[in-house]
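Field: sequence (string)
Field: structure_tokens (string)

Example rows 1 and 2, in order.
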Amino acid sequence: MATIKIVTDSSVQLTPEEIEQYNITVIPLSVMIDGTVYTDGKTITRPQFIDLMNQSAALPKTSQPPIGEFIKLFDQLGADGSPIIALHMTDAISGTVNTARQAANLSQSEVTVVDTRETDRGMAFQVIRAAQLAQAGASKKEILAAIERVRHSTKLYMAVMTLDNIVKGGRVSKVTGLISNILNMKVIFELVDGELNVQTKGRGMKTVNNFMRELIADLVTKSNIKGIGISHVAADSVVNKFKADIQTALPKVPLLVRDTSPIIATYAGMGAFAIMYYTED
């Protein structure tokens, strides 16, 4: 029986080593900056994107892969008879998952498309689990059930330093953005079933520091954390402090800290960061 193949999109937070180890196929998204189109991970790196976004005259525009690219990829991967499971970021952020579904209906291969209701490292938790099980010879039913368990046990919080980008990108209301910018507020969102909800907000970094202190204290009480990720947009100094705090409190829990993808950085804005974790019984 052919091994199930795993596909995801470039908003995911995976290391090159993980992609190779688990034989994951990543289809890139695109971003346009001041009229020039770049392919995520191919014609532009994450640090390069941050520099260009910081200098751009207008908010970069992101786009999902064309349906034709999805069809071509699915046909190639399934040419040997292998079924495919494609896991993509929440449709609240991008239309990628819907394009993948359309392509799956047109592909000659057997493709199952999953809306992870997550993104970044939160999505990677599901992708890695799916790939591990696929390599172990698990069935599609078993993999889909495992993905669902990981999704329900994943938490994602995002701290936004300025709402300029996220408001311009249409991800939160203009009223919320106006109030927050006038008061110089920092806003922390929680991703709940694929939607960004305001978890807390307040003036200055004290709000962020207090939230992280309380979150780490809560994490320490959990005995079943399988992984933590911190992704950020040019927030090295802030993130490195939290990284050290987490490693001190939870020295045995795997922790990955990296720049986020251009797609997420576009909407989160400079200085933003997200912390994600998942538990397993």
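Row 2 begins here:
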Amino acid sequence: MANVPTKPTTPVKKESSSASGLFASLTIPICIVVAILIFVFILGDASHFKGGDTSATGTPADIFGTVHKGGVIVPMIMSFLLMVIVFSIERFVVIGKASGTGSVDSFVRKVQASLNAGNIAAASAECDKQKGSVAAVIKSALKKYAEMEAEPNLDVDQKTLAIQKDIEEATALEMPMLEQNLTIIATLVSIGTLTGLLGTVIGMIGAFSTLAAAGAPNPSELSSHISEALINTALGISTSAISIIMYNVFTSKIDKLTYAIDETGFSIVQTFAASHKNSR
């Protein structure tokens, strides 16, 4: 019995993986630096405080000054928020390219119609029009389909298995590209909340220290610490909420692409098995 060929016809995308890793390595420190600059030079500008007093006892004149009163934890949380925004934009672009030039659902229907009509060339032409990861996997399967039709040494079951394995392996090569950097967004869900909680604790420690001081507590200093705690809480929760939403959006999009690949791949395998059943 001949061995079943399992080598996928889709090449490994090492360049895309390296580019994505470089993007992440550059984005994280840049977001941190930008967040610090915004905190110091924009939020901390004297125009955002009454009388231009930017000291610890100064009174904010607007929302920018209020956020600045959150203390040193604020730029940390802001950097996390910037990361979520930047990585979300990057994932939108990558997943959009993976989807191709048109509707994935429409593409799947066209390919299935061509397969039902026995027109493999038309299905392959649809892949060329669509482009993207889904089309790449399907075109890889169609190439394997053509190879198996010309393969004289395997029976129908072996040929069907070869096509199915090609689809699985081609999918395995495409999926890591779609899922890259999602781990960072998922991590920011927890880090945002924990950093906000850290800022809350620091602010409350300062507030209770003020209350514990001898004599009557300074109302201005007390309110400043409470404000610091609440601002960090709000920023941390907001960052985590946005991270959760974006993570769920991207996983939903990836699941949709995976389902489209599985659905079309199943149609290809079934079409091959049905059209060659008499040759068993």
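free_text_note (row 2): The CA atoms of residues 155 and 280 lie 7 Å apart.
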